[in-house]
Design goal:
Pfam families: DAO (PF01266). This is FAD-binding oxidoreductase. This protein is an alpha/beta fold and 321 residues long. The chain has a domain of 197 residues: FAD/NAD(P)-binding domain (3-Layer(bba) Sandwich), CATH 3.50.50. It is built from 9 helices and 16 strands. The strands form 4 sheets. It has a 6-stranded mixed beta sheet with strand order 9-2-1-13-15-14. The protein has a 4-stranded antiparallel beta sheet with strand order 6-7-5-16. A hairpin with a 2-residue loop joins strand 10 and strand 11. Helix 1 packs parallel to helix 7 and helix 3 crosses helix 9.
């Protein structure tokens, strides 16, 4: 195999689609259950471009345009509905909201600040008195993550990729300083020139035996399930450790909105050796950014606006409507 992708969720399927579309025919996805499991199956599918770093915002903007034309591009609906996306912040975060909107607009994203009256008109049922500033993204909305994963998968298969369900990967195989493939739970080994690990929260355990440490954020509490998130909340996308190993993990529950662009970036790196989108530099998502212990600050988190965390503040942080 040219490429084996471990994980049949959004990111794995998006990678298979993008690679197959580039003409890489020998692509195999291995999924331990059925397509669209894990975090993908539990995703709310919120689509917006209100991300705190330019590269993440640009990925979301590229992805939104694919969701809007999914039937034309992927050959199937992903259930996308344009409802608009309104965000509100308390007094402490007004400047951060304004800076975030300015950055996003510089990328061409359709987002703008709105006053309280406009916010009330947009969401008449919402209680807005405690919020000091608002931003609105008219093209935001939501989609169906499960349908999206299947749409990626069908498009990938039409382009020549293969998908194996109920094929759990037990380990990655390697020789010297190079990954050589994977070993399934039943003992079968599959050789591959490149292995892309897109297994969500299970990714760190798969790559750890090869000496690859995927930084994992700590959370004080969870109300259901789990997210795979890095300390800086931006994902790891790109080569890691031994030659032939790629990782796409650590999306912190926000992988849906950027999944098409994630697949494109993986295809860029594997086919071209670099990102072809100047607004999405691969270095922003490289594992090596953690080498000096300086991941992106939480105030530039992958999810949401560039809002600083102030534990003692009782003002509302933000509201997604």
């Amino acid at each position: 195999m040219d490429v084996v992708i471990v994980g049949g969720g959004l990111e794995g399927m998006a990678a298979a689609w993008a690679l197959a579309e580039r003409g890489m025919r020998d692509v195999l996805v291995l999924e331990r259950g059925t397509v669209g499991p894990g975090a993908t199956g539990m995703s709310s599918g919120v689509v917006h471009c209100r991300y705190g770093t330019p590269s993440s915002a640009a990925m979301a903007w590229r992805s939104l345009q694919i969701f809007e034309k999914a039937e034309e591009i992927l050959g199937a609906s992903v259930g996308f509905r344009r409802t608009g996306h309104l965000v509100g912040v308390g007094p402490l975060d007004v400047r951060a909201l304004e800076a975030g909107v300015a950055m996003q607009r510089a990328l061409g994203i359709d987002v703008y600040l709105v006053g309280r009256d406009d916010a009330a008109r947009l969401r008449p049922a919402a209680e807005l008195k405690d919020f000091a500033a608002f931003a609105y993204e008219p093209r935001g909305g939501y989609g169906d993550a499960h349908r999206t994963a299947h749409a990626f998968g069908r498009a990938a298969m039409r382009a020549g990729a293969r998908i194996r369900q109920h094929a759990p990967v037990a380990a990655l195989t390697a020789s010297r300083d190079r990954v050589t493939g994977v070993r399934l739970a039943d003992g079968q080994e599959i050789a591959a020139g490149t292995v892309v690990v897109a297994a969500g929260p299970w990714s760190p355990a798969l790559v750890a035996p090869l000496g690859v440490d995927l930084p994992d954020a700590s959370f004080a509490s969870l109300y259901a399930g789990c997210h795979d998130a890095t300390p800086g909340f931006a994902p790891v996308i790109g080569p890691a450790g031994p030659e032939g190993l790629f990782v796409a993990a650590g999306f912190g529950g926000h992988g849906y909105a950027t999944s098409p662009a994630v697949g494109t970036l993986i295809a860029d790196l594997l086919c071209e050796g670099a990102s072809t989108d100047p607004d999405v530099p691969a270095a922003d998502f490289a594992l090596r950014r953690f080498a000096h212990g300086r991941p992106p600050s939480p105030r530039q988190a992958f999810a949401g606006t560039a809002i600083p965390f102030r534990a003692r503040s009782t003002a509302p942080r933000r509201i997604l409507l």
